[in-house]
């Protein structure tokens, strides 16, 4: 994964990585888990 495009101050790049890990990834995980639950329920 590329975290920046061009020049980006180190502090902003680190903040971007932090937000990705604390906000984006948990939301993706919850969304994928919900989708998997729906698939399992449809197959039952």
Question: Level of helix content?
Answer: over 70%
Extended strand count: 0
What is the count of helical runs? 1
Radius of gyration: 16 Å
3D architecture notes:
The structure is a single chain. This protein has 44 residues and is an all-alpha fold. It contains 1 helix and no strands. The chain is rod-shaped. It starts with 9 loop residues before the first helix and ends with a helix.
Would you kindly provide a brief summary of this structure?
The model has no long low-confidence stretch (mean pLDDT 88). It contains one helix and no strands. It starts with 9 loop residues before the first helix and ends with a helix.
Question: What's the layout of helices and strands?
Answer:
Layout: H1 10-43
Descriptors:
mainly alpha; 44 residues; rod-shaped; 1 helix
């Amino acid at each position: 994964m590329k975290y920046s495009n061009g020049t980006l101050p180190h502090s902003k790049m680190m903040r971007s990585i932090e937000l990705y890990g604390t906000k984006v990834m948990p939301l993706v995980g919850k969304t994928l888990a919900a989708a998997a639950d729906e698939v399992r329920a449809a197959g039952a």
